[in-house]
Amino acid sequence: MMPRFKIAHLAVIATLMPGCMMVGPDYKRPEANVPPQYSAVEPVQASNEAEVSSTWWQLYQDPVLNELVEKALKNNTDIKLAVAKVEESDAYLREVGAALFPEIDFDGSGSRSRISQLGATPLPSSVPPVRNNFSGQIGTNFELDFWGRLRRLKESARAQALSTRYAKDTVDLSLKGLVVSNYLLLRSLEAQTALTEDSLKSREESLALTKRRLQGGVSSGLDVEQAQVASSNLVAQVAELKRQRDIAEHQLAVLTGDLALTIPAGTLDSLPIPPIPPVGLPSSLLAARPDIRQSEASMIAANANIGVAKAALFPTISLTANYGGQSADLSDVLKSAARIWTGGLSLNLPIFDSGRLDARVDQATAKQKQALASYESSIQTGFKEVSDALVTLSRTAEREAALQTSKDASKRALMIAENRYKSGYSGYLDVLDSQRTYNDAALAYIQSRQSRLSASVDLFKALGGGWKDPQQQAVAKQ
Fold this sequence. Notes:
Strand order of the largest sheet: 2-3-4-5
Helix content: 55-70%
Order of helices and strands: HEHHEEHHHEEHHEH
Number of domains: 1
Protein name: RND transporter
Structural class: alpha+beta
Largest sheet: 4 strands, antiparallel
Coiled coil: 224-258
CATH class: Mainly Alpha
CATH superfamily: Outer membrane efflux proteins (OEP)
Pfam families: OEP
Number of strands: 6
Low-confidence stretches: 1-18, 43-50, 469-478
Strand content: 5-15%
Shape: elongated
Number of helices: 9
InterPro entries: MdtP/NodT-like, OMP_efflux
Subcellular location: Cell membrane
Distance between the termini: 65 Å
Protein backbone atom coordinates (compact mmCIF):
# COMPACT_ATOMS: atom_id res chain seq x y z
CA MET A 1 0.00 0.00 0.00
CA MET A 2 1.19 3.52 -0.82
CA PRO A 3 2.55 5.11 2.35
CA ARG A 4 0.22 7.74 3.72
CA PHE A 5 2.93 10.36 3.99
CA LYS A 6 3.55 10.11 0.24
CA ILE A 7 -0.13 10.63 -0.50
CA ALA A 8 -0.18 13.62 1.82
CA HIS A 9 2.97 14.98 0.19
CA LEU A 10 1.43 14.86 -3.26
CA ALA A 11 -1.74 16.47 -1.95
CA VAL A 12 0.26 19.34 -0.46
CA ILE A 13 2.06 19.87 -3.78
CA ALA A 14 -1.26 20.03 -5.63
CA THR A 15 -2.66 22.46 -3.06
CA LEU A 16 0.28 24.84 -3.26
CA MET A 17 0.32 25.02 -7.05
CA PRO A 18 -1.96 28.12 -7.27
CA GLY A 19 0.62 30.05 -5.27
CA CYS A 20 3.40 29.39 -7.81
CA MET A 21 4.67 32.00 -10.23
CA MET A 22 2.68 33.12 -13.27
CA VAL A 23 4.64 33.93 -16.39
CA GLY A 24 3.46 36.65 -18.74
CA PRO A 25 2.49 40.28 -18.13
CA ASP A 26 -0.13 41.26 -15.55
CA TYR A 27 -2.87 43.47 -16.94
CA LYS A 28 -2.76 47.21 -16.34
CA ARG A 29 -5.41 49.48 -17.81
CA PRO A 30 -3.81 51.91 -20.28
CA GLU A 31 -4.44 55.60 -19.87
CA ALA A 32 -7.11 57.03 -22.15
CA ASN A 33 -5.62 59.82 -24.25
CA VAL A 34 -8.75 62.00 -24.37
CA PRO A 35 -9.59 65.46 -23.00
CA PRO A 36 -10.90 65.57 -19.43
CA GLN A 37 -14.19 67.11 -20.64
CA TYR A 38 -16.40 67.07 -23.69
CA SER A 39 -16.74 70.06 -25.96
CA ALA A 40 -18.31 72.95 -24.03
CA VAL A 41 -21.45 73.31 -26.11
CA GLU A 42 -24.32 74.90 -24.21
CA PRO A 43 -27.39 72.74 -24.75
CA VAL A 44 -30.80 74.29 -24.85
CA GLN A 45 -33.03 73.41 -21.89
CA ALA A 46 -30.14 71.79 -20.02
CA SER A 47 -31.16 70.00 -16.85
CA ASN A 48 -29.39 70.03 -13.51
CA GLU A 49 -30.85 66.71 -12.48
CA ALA A 50 -28.25 64.48 -10.88
CA GLU A 51 -29.27 61.32 -12.66
CA VAL A 52 -30.79 60.06 -15.87
CA SER A 53 -32.32 56.61 -15.47
CA SER A 54 -30.85 53.65 -17.36
CA THR A 55 -34.42 53.10 -18.59
CA TRP A 56 -34.02 56.32 -20.52
CA TRP A 57 -36.72 55.61 -23.11
CA GLN A 58 -39.33 56.02 -20.37
CA LEU A 59 -38.40 59.70 -20.18
CA TYR A 60 -40.39 60.25 -23.39
CA GLN A 61 -43.50 59.40 -21.36
CA ASP A 62 -45.16 57.33 -24.05
CA PRO A 63 -46.85 54.07 -22.96
CA VAL A 64 -46.83 52.70 -26.50
CA LEU A 65 -43.08 53.27 -26.79
CA ASN A 66 -42.47 51.63 -23.41
CA GLU A 67 -44.39 48.56 -24.50
CA LEU A 68 -42.47 48.34 -27.79
CA VAL A 69 -39.09 48.47 -26.05
CA GLU A 70 -40.05 45.83 -23.49
CA LYS A 71 -41.39 43.59 -26.24
CA ALA A 72 -38.18 43.99 -28.25
CA LEU A 73 -36.00 43.13 -25.25
CA LYS A 74 -38.02 39.95 -24.80
CA ASN A 75 -38.51 38.74 -28.37
CA ASN A 76 -35.78 40.19 -30.58
CA THR A 77 -33.67 37.52 -32.28
CA ASP A 78 -30.41 39.48 -31.91
CA ILE A 79 -30.94 39.58 -28.14
CA LYS A 80 -31.61 35.84 -28.07
CA LEU A 81 -28.42 35.23 -30.04
CA ALA A 82 -26.39 37.41 -27.67
CA VAL A 83 -27.82 35.62 -24.62
CA ALA A 84 -26.90 32.24 -26.13
CA LYS A 85 -23.32 33.47 -26.67
CA VAL A 86 -23.15 34.55 -23.03
CA GLU A 87 -24.28 31.09 -21.95
CA GLU A 88 -21.64 29.50 -24.18
CA SER A 89 -18.82 31.66 -22.80
CA ASP A 90 -19.93 30.96 -19.21
CA ALA A 91 -19.82 27.23 -19.89
CA TYR A 92 -16.34 27.57 -21.41
CA LEU A 93 -15.17 29.47 -18.31
CA ARG A 94 -16.40 26.63 -16.09
CA GLU A 95 -14.59 24.11 -18.31
CA VAL A 96 -11.29 26.01 -18.10
CA GLY A 97 -11.65 26.55 -14.36
CA ALA A 98 -12.16 22.83 -13.80
CA ALA A 99 -8.64 22.17 -15.12
CA LEU A 100 -7.21 23.74 -11.95
CA PHE A 101 -8.53 20.83 -9.89
CA PRO A 102 -7.61 17.15 -10.06
CA GLU A 103 -9.73 14.95 -12.28
CA ILE A 104 -10.59 11.65 -10.58
CA ASP A 105 -11.68 8.69 -12.66
CA PHE A 106 -12.81 5.16 -11.84
CA ASP A 107 -11.73 2.29 -14.03
CA GLY A 108 -13.31 -1.13 -13.50
CA SER A 109 -12.98 -4.28 -15.57
CA GLY A 110 -13.86 -7.94 -15.43
CA SER A 111 -12.75 -10.73 -17.77
CA ARG A 112 -12.81 -14.55 -18.10
CA SER A 113 -10.21 -16.27 -20.27
CA ARG A 114 -8.94 -19.77 -21.09
CA ILE A 115 -5.28 -20.70 -21.55
CA SER A 116 -4.25 -23.47 -23.92
CA GLN A 117 -3.22 -26.71 -22.26
CA LEU A 118 -1.28 -27.80 -25.34
CA GLY A 119 1.10 -24.86 -25.59
CA ALA A 120 4.88 -24.91 -25.71
CA THR A 121 4.90 -24.91 -21.92
CA PRO A 122 2.17 -27.27 -20.69
CA LEU A 123 0.22 -26.10 -17.69
CA PRO A 124 0.47 -28.14 -14.53
CA SER A 125 -2.60 -30.21 -13.90
CA SER A 126 -3.25 -28.23 -10.73
CA VAL A 127 -3.62 -24.97 -12.62
CA PRO A 128 -7.08 -24.56 -14.13
CA PRO A 129 -7.05 -23.36 -17.78
CA VAL A 130 -10.01 -21.03 -17.24
CA ARG A 131 -9.25 -17.86 -15.27
CA ASN A 132 -11.19 -14.86 -13.98
CA ASN A 133 -9.73 -11.41 -13.52
CA PHE A 134 -11.48 -8.51 -11.79
CA SER A 135 -10.05 -5.06 -11.07
CA GLY A 136 -11.25 -1.69 -9.94
CA GLN A 137 -9.20 1.45 -9.30
CA ILE A 138 -9.49 5.18 -9.03
CA GLY A 139 -6.87 7.39 -10.63
CA THR A 140 -5.93 10.95 -11.37
CA ASN A 141 -3.73 12.80 -13.84
CA PHE A 142 -3.24 16.37 -12.66
CA GLU A 143 -1.07 19.04 -14.27
CA LEU A 144 0.86 21.00 -11.64
CA ASP A 145 0.45 24.64 -12.62
CA PHE A 146 4.00 25.76 -11.79
CA TRP A 147 4.10 28.52 -14.41
CA GLY A 148 0.49 29.69 -14.26
CA ARG A 149 -0.58 28.36 -17.66
CA LEU A 150 -3.93 27.13 -16.39
CA ARG A 151 -4.51 30.25 -14.32
CA ARG A 152 -3.75 32.45 -17.33
CA LEU A 153 -6.18 30.34 -19.35
CA LYS A 154 -8.85 30.93 -16.73
CA GLU A 155 -8.04 34.66 -16.68
CA SER A 156 -8.46 34.76 -20.45
CA ALA A 157 -11.70 32.76 -20.33
CA ARG A 158 -13.10 35.02 -17.62
CA ALA A 159 -12.31 38.10 -19.71
CA GLN A 160 -13.90 36.48 -22.76
CA ALA A 161 -17.02 35.74 -20.73
CA LEU A 162 -17.18 39.39 -19.67
CA SER A 163 -16.66 40.43 -23.28
CA THR A 164 -19.69 38.45 -24.42
CA ARG A 165 -21.77 39.99 -21.62
CA TYR A 166 -20.73 43.47 -22.69
CA ALA A 167 -21.43 42.50 -26.30
CA LYS A 168 -24.92 41.52 -25.21
CA ASP A 169 -25.29 44.88 -23.45
CA THR A 170 -24.15 46.61 -26.64
CA VAL A 171 -26.78 44.75 -28.67
CA ASP A 172 -29.32 45.61 -25.98
CA LEU A 173 -28.47 49.34 -26.12
CA SER A 174 -28.42 49.39 -29.91
CA LEU A 175 -31.80 47.63 -30.03
CA LYS A 176 -33.37 50.16 -27.67
CA GLY A 177 -32.01 52.99 -29.77
CA LEU A 178 -33.36 51.46 -32.98
CA VAL A 179 -36.82 50.95 -31.50
CA VAL A 180 -37.02 54.51 -30.15
CA SER A 181 -35.63 56.08 -33.35
CA ASN A 182 -38.01 54.14 -35.59
CA TYR A 183 -40.90 55.01 -33.30
CA LEU A 184 -40.02 58.72 -33.50
CA LEU A 185 -39.80 58.41 -37.29
CA LEU A 186 -43.22 56.78 -37.39
CA ARG A 187 -44.76 59.54 -35.27
CA SER A 188 -43.06 62.17 -37.43
CA LEU A 189 -44.47 60.61 -40.60
CA GLU A 190 -47.93 60.52 -39.02
CA ALA A 191 -47.65 64.22 -38.14
CA GLN A 192 -46.44 65.04 -41.66
CA THR A 193 -49.33 63.04 -43.11
CA ALA A 194 -51.88 64.83 -40.95
CA LEU A 195 -50.44 68.22 -41.91
CA THR A 196 -50.39 67.36 -45.60
CA GLU A 197 -53.99 66.10 -45.46
CA ASP A 198 -55.03 69.40 -43.86
CA SER A 199 -53.21 71.28 -46.61
CA LEU A 200 -54.92 69.05 -49.16
CA LYS A 201 -58.33 70.01 -47.78
CA SER A 202 -57.39 73.66 -48.08
CA ARG A 203 -56.24 73.23 -51.67
CA GLU A 204 -59.37 71.28 -52.58
CA GLU A 205 -61.41 74.15 -51.20
CA SER A 206 -59.30 76.54 -53.26
CA LEU A 207 -59.84 74.36 -56.32
CA ALA A 208 -63.62 74.43 -55.80
CA LEU A 209 -63.45 78.20 -55.30
CA THR A 210 -61.51 78.78 -58.53
CA LYS A 211 -63.98 76.64 -60.43
CA ARG A 212 -66.87 78.75 -59.13
CA ARG A 213 -64.99 81.92 -59.95
CA LEU A 214 -64.32 80.56 -63.44
CA GLN A 215 -68.02 79.94 -63.92
CA GLY A 216 -68.70 83.49 -62.73
CA GLY A 217 -66.14 84.87 -65.15
CA VAL A 218 -63.90 86.17 -62.38
CA SER A 219 -61.02 83.62 -62.71
CA SER A 220 -59.31 82.11 -65.71
CA GLY A 221 -58.87 78.49 -66.69
CA LEU A 222 -55.21 78.87 -65.77
CA ASP A 223 -56.13 79.37 -62.11
CA VAL A 224 -58.21 76.19 -62.18
CA GLU A 225 -55.42 74.10 -63.70
CA GLN A 226 -52.86 75.49 -61.27
CA ALA A 227 -55.15 74.65 -58.35
CA GLN A 228 -55.66 71.14 -59.75
CA VAL A 229 -51.89 70.56 -60.04
CA ALA A 230 -51.31 71.76 -56.48
CA SER A 231 -54.07 69.47 -55.15
CA SER A 232 -52.87 66.41 -57.09
CA ASN A 233 -49.30 66.91 -55.89
CA LEU A 234 -50.47 66.78 -52.29
CA VAL A 235 -52.44 63.59 -52.96
CA ALA A 236 -49.23 61.98 -54.19
CA GLN A 237 -47.33 63.36 -51.20
CA VAL A 238 -49.84 61.87 -48.76
CA ALA A 239 -49.55 58.46 -50.47
CA GLU A 240 -45.75 58.56 -50.16
CA LEU A 241 -45.87 59.56 -46.48
CA LYS A 242 -48.28 56.73 -45.70
CA ARG A 243 -45.99 54.28 -47.50
CA GLN A 244 -43.04 55.38 -45.40
CA ARG A 245 -45.13 55.16 -42.22
CA ASP A 246 -46.14 51.58 -43.01
CA ILE A 247 -42.50 50.62 -43.67
CA ALA A 248 -41.47 52.12 -40.31
CA GLU A 249 -44.20 50.07 -38.64
CA HIS A 250 -42.96 46.93 -40.38
CA GLN A 251 -39.43 47.64 -39.12
CA LEU A 252 -40.74 47.96 -35.57
CA ALA A 253 -42.58 44.66 -36.04
CA VAL A 254 -39.27 42.95 -36.87
CA LEU A 255 -37.42 44.62 -34.00
CA THR A 256 -40.08 43.58 -31.48
CA GLY A 257 -40.54 40.08 -32.89
CA ASP A 258 -44.26 40.75 -33.40
CA LEU A 259 -44.89 40.51 -37.14
CA ALA A 260 -48.60 41.27 -36.65
CA LEU A 261 -47.79 44.54 -34.86
CA THR A 262 -50.15 47.46 -35.37
CA ILE A 263 -49.44 50.80 -33.74
CA PRO A 264 -52.32 53.17 -32.98
CA ALA A 265 -52.10 56.74 -34.20
CA GLY A 266 -50.35 59.26 -31.98
CA THR A 267 -48.80 62.71 -32.03
CA LEU A 268 -45.19 63.79 -32.11
CA ASP A 269 -45.78 67.03 -30.21
CA SER A 270 -46.88 65.11 -27.11
CA LEU A 271 -43.40 63.63 -26.68
CA PRO A 272 -41.30 65.79 -24.34
CA ILE A 273 -37.62 66.50 -24.74
CA PRO A 274 -36.03 64.43 -21.92
CA PRO A 275 -33.63 65.91 -19.37
CA ILE A 276 -30.24 66.68 -20.85
CA PRO A 277 -27.00 66.08 -18.89
CA PRO A 278 -25.04 69.26 -18.17
CA VAL A 279 -22.11 70.33 -20.30
CA GLY A 280 -18.59 69.28 -19.30
CA LEU A 281 -19.29 65.63 -18.50
CA PRO A 282 -16.06 63.91 -17.44
CA SER A 283 -14.54 61.75 -20.14
CA SER A 284 -14.28 58.92 -17.61
CA LEU A 285 -18.00 58.46 -18.23
CA LEU A 286 -16.99 56.60 -21.38
CA ALA A 287 -16.24 53.62 -19.13
CA ALA A 288 -20.01 53.17 -18.84
CA ARG A 289 -20.29 52.30 -22.54
CA PRO A 290 -20.62 48.54 -23.02
CA ASP A 291 -18.70 48.56 -26.30
CA ILE A 292 -15.66 50.12 -24.58
CA ARG A 293 -15.93 47.63 -21.74
CA GLN A 294 -16.12 44.85 -24.32
CA SER A 295 -12.95 46.11 -26.00
CA GLU A 296 -11.15 46.23 -22.66
CA ALA A 297 -12.25 42.69 -21.77
CA SER A 298 -10.90 41.47 -25.12
CA MET A 299 -7.63 43.22 -24.33
CA ILE A 300 -7.45 41.52 -20.92
CA ALA A 301 -8.00 38.13 -22.59
CA ALA A 302 -5.31 38.83 -25.17
CA ASN A 303 -2.92 39.92 -22.41
CA ALA A 304 -3.52 36.66 -20.49
CA ASN A 305 -2.95 34.61 -23.63
CA ILE A 306 0.63 35.92 -23.73
CA GLY A 307 1.19 34.15 -20.41
CA VAL A 308 -0.37 30.98 -21.80
CA ALA A 309 2.01 31.05 -24.76
CA LYS A 310 5.05 31.79 -22.57
CA ALA A 311 4.18 28.98 -20.16
CA ALA A 312 4.52 26.51 -23.04
CA LEU A 313 8.26 27.33 -23.10
CA PHE A 314 8.66 25.79 -19.64
CA PRO A 315 8.42 22.14 -18.53
CA THR A 316 4.96 20.64 -18.06
CA ILE A 317 4.82 18.65 -14.82
CA SER A 318 1.95 16.28 -14.13
CA LEU A 319 0.99 14.12 -11.17
CA THR A 320 -0.35 10.62 -11.83
CA ALA A 321 -1.77 8.25 -9.23
CA ASN A 322 -3.92 5.10 -9.22
CA TYR A 323 -5.28 3.09 -6.33
CA GLY A 324 -7.54 0.04 -6.36
CA GLY A 325 -7.70 -3.76 -6.22
CA GLN A 326 -7.29 -6.76 -8.51
CA SER A 327 -8.23 -10.39 -7.92
CA ALA A 328 -9.44 -13.52 -9.58
CA ASP A 329 -12.71 -13.42 -7.62
CA LEU A 330 -14.94 -10.38 -7.56
CA SER A 331 -15.53 -10.83 -3.84
CA ASP A 332 -11.80 -10.46 -3.14
CA VAL A 333 -11.27 -7.14 -4.96
CA LEU A 334 -11.65 -5.08 -1.78
CA LYS A 335 -9.36 -7.24 0.35
CA SER A 336 -6.01 -5.80 1.42
CA ALA A 337 -4.07 -8.51 -0.38
CA ALA A 338 -5.68 -7.48 -3.70
CA ARG A 339 -4.71 -3.83 -3.46
CA ILE A 340 -2.71 -2.20 -6.26
CA TRP A 341 -1.40 1.34 -6.63
CA THR A 342 0.91 3.47 -8.70
CA GLY A 343 2.08 7.04 -8.30
CA GLY A 344 4.54 9.32 -9.99
CA LEU A 345 5.40 12.57 -11.71
CA SER A 346 5.86 13.14 -15.43
CA LEU A 347 7.83 15.98 -17.02
CA ASN A 348 7.64 17.23 -20.58
CA LEU A 349 10.36 19.75 -21.50
CA PRO A 350 10.54 21.28 -24.99
CA ILE A 351 14.16 21.14 -26.23
CA PHE A 352 14.08 21.97 -29.94
CA ASP A 353 11.05 23.03 -31.99
CA SER A 354 12.59 25.35 -34.63
CA GLY A 355 11.11 28.42 -32.90
CA ARG A 356 7.50 27.23 -33.02
CA LEU A 357 6.73 28.10 -29.38
CA ASP A 358 8.51 31.46 -29.62
CA ALA A 359 6.42 32.23 -32.69
CA ARG A 360 3.28 31.54 -30.69
CA VAL A 361 4.43 34.03 -28.05
CA ASP A 362 4.97 36.62 -30.78
CA GLN A 363 1.50 35.89 -32.18
CA ALA A 364 -0.10 36.37 -28.76
CA THR A 365 1.84 39.61 -28.26
CA ALA A 366 0.71 40.90 -31.65
CA LYS A 367 -2.90 40.05 -30.85
CA GLN A 368 -2.58 41.96 -27.57
CA LYS A 369 -1.35 44.99 -29.53
CA GLN A 370 -4.32 44.66 -31.87
CA ALA A 371 -6.69 44.54 -28.90
CA LEU A 372 -5.02 47.62 -27.41
CA ALA A 373 -5.44 49.52 -30.67
CA SER A 374 -9.08 48.46 -30.84
CA TYR A 375 -9.62 49.60 -27.25
CA GLU A 376 -8.07 53.01 -27.93
CA SER A 377 -10.16 53.34 -31.10
CA SER A 378 -13.37 52.53 -29.22
CA ILE A 379 -12.59 55.24 -26.65
CA GLN A 380 -11.92 57.81 -29.34
CA THR A 381 -15.09 56.84 -31.18
CA GLY A 382 -17.14 57.03 -28.00
CA PHE A 383 -15.74 60.44 -27.13
CA LYS A 384 -16.56 61.70 -30.63
CA GLU A 385 -20.10 60.31 -30.53
CA VAL A 386 -20.86 62.06 -27.23
CA SER A 387 -19.44 65.34 -28.53
CA ASP A 388 -21.39 65.00 -31.79
CA ALA A 389 -24.60 64.23 -29.92
CA LEU A 390 -24.20 67.29 -27.68
CA VAL A 391 -23.57 69.53 -30.69
CA THR A 392 -26.46 68.05 -32.66
CA LEU A 393 -28.84 68.41 -29.73
CA SER A 394 -27.90 72.04 -29.28
CA ARG A 395 -28.11 73.00 -32.97
CA THR A 396 -31.35 71.12 -33.64
CA ALA A 397 -32.94 73.03 -30.73
CA GLU A 398 -31.90 76.30 -32.35
CA ARG A 399 -33.17 75.09 -35.74
CA GLU A 400 -36.51 74.02 -34.27
CA ALA A 401 -37.03 77.44 -32.70
CA ALA A 402 -36.26 79.19 -35.99
CA LEU A 403 -38.57 76.88 -37.96
CA GLN A 404 -41.36 77.48 -35.45
CA THR A 405 -41.12 81.20 -36.23
CA SER A 406 -41.01 80.46 -39.95
CA LYS A 407 -44.08 78.24 -39.75
CA ASP A 408 -46.11 80.84 -37.84
CA ALA A 409 -45.11 83.61 -40.24
CA SER A 410 -45.91 81.51 -43.34
CA LYS A 411 -49.32 80.63 -41.91
CA ARG A 412 -50.13 84.32 -41.42
CA ALA A 413 -48.89 85.05 -44.94
CA LEU A 414 -51.18 82.33 -46.32
CA MET A 415 -54.21 83.82 -44.59
CA ILE A 416 -53.37 87.24 -46.05
CA ALA A 417 -52.88 85.81 -49.57
CA GLU A 418 -56.20 83.95 -49.43
CA ASN A 419 -58.08 87.04 -48.24
CA ARG A 420 -56.47 89.21 -50.96
CA TYR A 421 -57.37 86.64 -53.61
CA LYS A 422 -60.97 86.42 -52.44
CA SER A 423 -61.17 90.21 -52.50
CA GLY A 424 -59.67 90.39 -55.99
CA TYR A 425 -56.51 92.27 -54.98
CA SER A 426 -54.05 89.53 -56.09
CA GLY A 427 -53.84 86.53 -58.41
CA TYR A 428 -54.16 82.91 -57.52
CA LEU A 429 -50.43 82.41 -58.02
CA ASP A 430 -49.80 84.29 -54.75
CA VAL A 431 -52.12 81.87 -52.96
CA LEU A 432 -50.29 78.87 -54.44
CA ASP A 433 -46.92 80.25 -53.39
CA SER A 434 -48.18 80.95 -49.88
CA GLN A 435 -49.69 77.46 -49.57
CA ARG A 436 -46.48 75.84 -50.77
CA THR A 437 -44.37 77.97 -48.43
CA TYR A 438 -46.52 77.16 -45.42
CA ASN A 439 -46.62 73.44 -46.19
CA ASP A 440 -42.84 73.28 -46.59
CA ALA A 441 -42.24 75.29 -43.40
CA ALA A 442 -44.64 73.17 -41.35
CA LEU A 443 -43.12 69.92 -42.64
CA ALA A 444 -39.62 71.22 -41.91
CA TYR A 445 -40.69 72.06 -38.35
CA ILE A 446 -42.02 68.53 -37.77
CA GLN A 447 -38.86 67.01 -39.20
CA SER A 448 -36.74 69.30 -37.03
CA ARG A 449 -38.56 68.20 -33.90
CA GLN A 450 -38.01 64.59 -34.85
CA SER A 451 -34.32 65.36 -35.38
CA ARG A 452 -34.10 66.95 -31.95
CA LEU A 453 -35.75 63.97 -30.29
CA SER A 454 -33.52 61.60 -32.27
CA ALA A 455 -30.47 63.59 -31.14
CA SER A 456 -31.47 62.98 -27.53
CA VAL A 457 -31.66 59.25 -28.32
CA ASP A 458 -28.16 59.41 -29.81
CA LEU A 459 -26.89 61.16 -26.68
CA PHE A 460 -28.28 58.48 -24.38
CA LYS A 461 -26.75 55.77 -26.59
CA ALA A 462 -23.41 57.58 -26.67
CA LEU A 463 -23.41 57.78 -22.87
CA GLY A 464 -23.96 54.04 -22.59
CA GLY A 465 -27.69 54.14 -21.94
CA GLY A 466 -27.73 56.28 -18.81
CA TRP A 467 -26.02 59.08 -16.99
CA LYS A 468 -25.16 59.94 -13.42
CA ASP A 469 -23.43 63.04 -12.12
CA PRO A 470 -20.28 61.79 -10.29
CA GLN A 471 -20.21 64.84 -7.98
CA GLN A 472 -23.83 64.33 -6.97
CA GLN A 473 -23.15 60.65 -6.30
CA ALA A 474 -20.19 61.54 -4.07
CA VAL A 475 -22.33 63.94 -2.07
CA ALA A 476 -25.08 61.32 -1.70
CA LYS A 477 -22.58 58.81 -0.26
CA GLN A 478 -21.37 61.21 2.43
